[in-house]
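User: I want to check something. If I give you two sequences, will you return the structure for each one separately, not as a complex?

Assistant: Yes, each is folded on its own. Here is the first sequence with its structure:
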Amino acid sequence: MEQKFYDMVEANPVIAAIKDTHGLEKCCRLKEIKVIFILYGDICSITEIVKKVRQSGKLAIVHVDLIAGLSAKEIAVDFIKQQSGADGIISTKPAMIRRAKELGMYTIMRFFILDSMAYENIEKQLAMVRPDFIEILPGVMPKIIRKICKMVKIQVIVGGLITDKEDIVAALDAGAISVSSTNPKVWGM
């Protein structure tokens, strides 16, 4: 299953991360975008958002922690799988990742690298659960990205503060397989 995701980001290493309906409409029209991270919605709208993404022929990955009305319990993943038909989830919570893996979904564990403690926490978190991919934020730290790529045996996606082609190239050169961005200007690069 990981291979399909990997093939899609290899075809275009930029992942559109959407935070509103305008972004949804725009990225669904872009042929080069293959994977969409859904960073908004609520229990009443998520099914329709995922439906639009899937109808455009793209993978729909829902950041389950950001969907209003869902609890931080594993049942939220069941809801996303059963009600929306999403291909996968993003979460900062190991229990959510574990449950999504049980359900056969793509799993992306998100880490915010704010300081050395957060950096050191990566290995501890990954010892508890093995997601398909990890996402590191912010994505404009090539030196740290390189260290993380060497430290973990999981493919790395980076996001956050990616604003231009130079940021994309630096992240990919550091070992990331792709970058995610909410910036529509980056989606076409």
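And separately, the second sequence with its own structure:
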Amino acid sequence: MRQRRKLAVILLLAVLFVQAAGYMQVYAASATLRFSVGDGGAVAEQEFTVTLSVESDATIGDFEAYFTYDAMLAEYVSGPACITGGDGYLKVSDMDASPSSRLRNYVMVFRALKRGPCPFRITGVPMVYAYENGNSMSVLSEPFTLEIAAAPDASDNALVSSLRISPGTLVPEFSPEITEYETELPPGTERLIVSAVPEDSRSSVSIAGNDAITDGENHINVTVTAESGNIRVYHIMAVRGAAAPSPTPEPEKEPEQPGGCVLSAEREGEELLLGGRWSYRVAALPEGEVPPEGYSADWLLISGETIAAYMTEPDAPFCLLYLDNEAGESGWYRFDREEYTVQRYRPEVVTVKDTSETNRKVNELLAKTSDYEKRKNAMSILCGGLSAVVVLLGVLCIRLSVRNRGDGDGDFE
């Protein structure tokens, strides 16, 4: 009788262990997606490798995911056959995969186009399935940003060929090698117009601090970033004098045009000149030259003179002017109405992508995830019911064993 009772207890424990093990297998499986770059990193104008790793606590089966990268900085060259796409969007569809270990790597080759931070991001809902039972795993993806270094022969020229302000005069006189300047501004000056032209057209220029001028010292920084990433900052300390108190009301300001731009201008004969030192000449639009797409002809009032301007809309923060510079070169210039700066206009290239197919795939993955959640909940209920049945059977077995033992003792007596 004791042997029968021991067997019943052992059977109960075995059933509970198997049920608990199955429960853990269904719910504990998870995976992590990581990006990494090959040895040597990434250098502009050279190829480099990026590895997408899938790591799990269970044997990996099928895998499907989408990820993005900056197509302005990197170009996809090649990879495994299960990877398709390009132009900043790739799909990994490794279905019907043979069993592998708990770590799987996908190595891809890219070509670096230029210097800068290139992010790699998993999008949508990645799907990783356990090979043993086909169940999908919970997935964690880690963001990754690759710093692409400048090409060895990239220009490190971060100088400007000209630097002009209006109003005011730079002290000392401008020289590309001098980075510290001072100027005095008349009372009431609210903005300082700054024009900076880089020596190397591949360099970029940004200007900060020239808006919202106040009494006393104001610090304006002109930052030039070379193709190589080399940075040079031209600093202008602009001192605005305080306005003298006046018993009479201030004269009304000249009303602005709808565009909101009132600039300094001066006419010399038939020529209309712009800028603090009249460094630009308003030029007529040549025959055959048309404004960039999206811009239409309009007018601006400049010191009582009306000139042609081109705008996307009347209240747009930028407008275009067609000007001649001091070197006699004609072209489009962009005027920033908020910063009051004039810079060369470079049209932006916008790529529109058809994402309908991607959205369909993402919806399919979401549907699969929803179906998995339903099956998981049903399995949870079933496992709970089975656990209750097993416990009841175990209790019955124990009670029967105890009762049989009692009957045996009575017969013995």
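Because they were folded independently, the notes below concern the second chain alone. The CA atoms of residues 287 and 322 lie 13 Å apart. The first strand starts at residue 30 and ends at 37.
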